[in-house]
């Protein structure tokens, strides 16, 4: 039994979903359950209504009413696009100090949206799109120019050994290395990579190169967290990537940090080790 801390005022979180090549409904449900189970978060959902003019005209997520926005949309297989006013509203929210959590495949989204590329830092992009980042054996971050390396890709999902860089507040008390369940290691995620900090990395089995798994971006007065953790596909009833005890520990900490709140430093007894992953059930919201 994992003790649940008691908090005073809830952190207000908005999940934006509605389209993805991943199972966005299952992802949103899992995120809502994991966050609300702590007792510290109040989670709302705004779902993209489709491309009908009347529905889009009435869709206006009120980002500024929330502490943190979790972006769970991905248009990589479709033609969905947020209205320009919604894009500008998200830019304003983050630039004025809001927190943005780019969840898993949301960093595949919106390649034509220049400010989104700046917010996410790195995403699923073509070889000539922008910088890629690797981490050498000494733990130093290496910037790979556009045109060098390859386009973004990944191999099969794996239980990967994550190595954290530095001592970011999100990772307080974490072991230096731990096994993250069922993750995709993005080779050559690309983007502007401005004001970007790599938090952790893993070695890609095919290339033998270390690529970032988690990173943050400063955007105006706000902060953005981005990672490849949390894969939920349509055939995954109980996705290991969301059952991972390490990831379930991370998610509330990420939102606390993005909201500029105190981070719960407790480490659960079932946290994974460098030798073995650890799974737990996903709370039902």
Q: Could you explain the architecture of this structure?
A:
The chain has 285 residues and is an alpha/beta fold. It has a single domain (11-258), classed as Rossmann fold (3-Layer(aba) Sandwich). Helices cover 19% and strands 25% of the residues. The protein is built from 6 helices and 12 strands. It has helices spanning 24-36, 53-57, 84-95, 114-120, 240-243, 245-258, and strands spanning 11-17, 41-47, 68-71, 99-102, 131-135, 141-144, 158-164, 177-183, 190-191, 196-203, 210-219, 222-227. It has a 9-stranded mixed β-sheet with strand order 2-1-3-4-12-11-10-7-8, sandwiched between helices. Strand 10 (196-203) and strand 11 form a beta hairpin. The longest helix is centred in the last third of the chain and has 14 residues, at 245-258. It is globular and about 50 Å long. The two termini are 18 Å apart. Residues 1-7 have low confidence and may be disordered.
**pLDDT average, as an integer?**
95
CATH superfamily: Class I glutamine amidotransferase (GATase) domain
| Gyration radius from CA atoms, angstroms | 18 Å
CATH class placement:
Alpha Beta
Q: Per the principal axes of the C-alpha atoms, what is the gross shape? A: globular
The chain-level structural class is: alpha/beta
Number of distinct helices: 6
N-to-C SSE string, H for helix and E for strand:
EHEHEHEHEEEEEEEEHH
> Helicity level, as a percent range?
10-25%
Percentage of residues in strands: 15-25%
The tally of structural domains comes to 1
Q: If strands are numbered along the chain, what order do they take across the biggest sheet?
A: 2-1-3-4-12-11-10-7-8
Which fold name is given in CATH as the topology?
A: Rossmann fold
Unreliable sequence segments: 1-7
The first-to-last residue Cα distance is 18 Å
CATH architecture call: 3-Layer(aba) Sandwich
What is the number of beta strands? 12
Main sheet summary = 9 strands, mixed
């Amino acid at each position: 039994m994992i003790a649940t801390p008691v908090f005073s005022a809830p952190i207000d979180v908005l999940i934006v979903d509605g389209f993805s090549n991943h199972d966005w409904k299952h992802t949103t449900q899992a995120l809502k359950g994991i966050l609300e189970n702590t007792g510290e978060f109040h989670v709302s959902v705004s779902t993209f209504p489709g491309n009908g003019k009347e529905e889009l005209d009435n869709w206006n997520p009120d980002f500024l009413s929330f502490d943190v926005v979790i972006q769970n949309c991905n248009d990589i297989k479709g033609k969905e696009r947020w209205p320009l006013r919604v894009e500008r509203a998200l830019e304003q929210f983050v630039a004025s100090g809001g927190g943005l959590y780019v969840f898993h495949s949301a960093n595949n989204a919106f390649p034509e949206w220049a400010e989104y590329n700046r917010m996410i830092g790195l995403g699923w992009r073509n070889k000539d799109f922008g910088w890629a980042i690797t981490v050498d054996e000494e733990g130093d971050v290496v910037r790979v120019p556009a045109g060098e390396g390859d386009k973004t890709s990944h191999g099969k999902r794996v239980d990967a050994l994550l190595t954290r860089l530095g001592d970011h507040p999100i990772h307080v008390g974490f072991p230096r290395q731990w096994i993250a369940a069922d993750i995709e290691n993005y080779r050559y995620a690309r983007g502007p990579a401005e004001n970007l900090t790599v938090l952790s990395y893993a070695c890609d089995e095919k290339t033998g190169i270390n690529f970032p798994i988690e990173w943050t971006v400063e955007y105006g007065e706000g902060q953005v967290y981005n990672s490849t953790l949390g894969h939920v596909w349509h055939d995954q009833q109980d996705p290991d990537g969301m059952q991972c005890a390490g990831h379930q520990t991370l998610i509330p900490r990420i939102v606390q940090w993005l909201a500029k709140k105190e981070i719960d430093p407790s480490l659960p007894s079932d946290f994974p080790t460098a030798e073995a992953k650890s799974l737990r059930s996903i709370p039902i919201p």
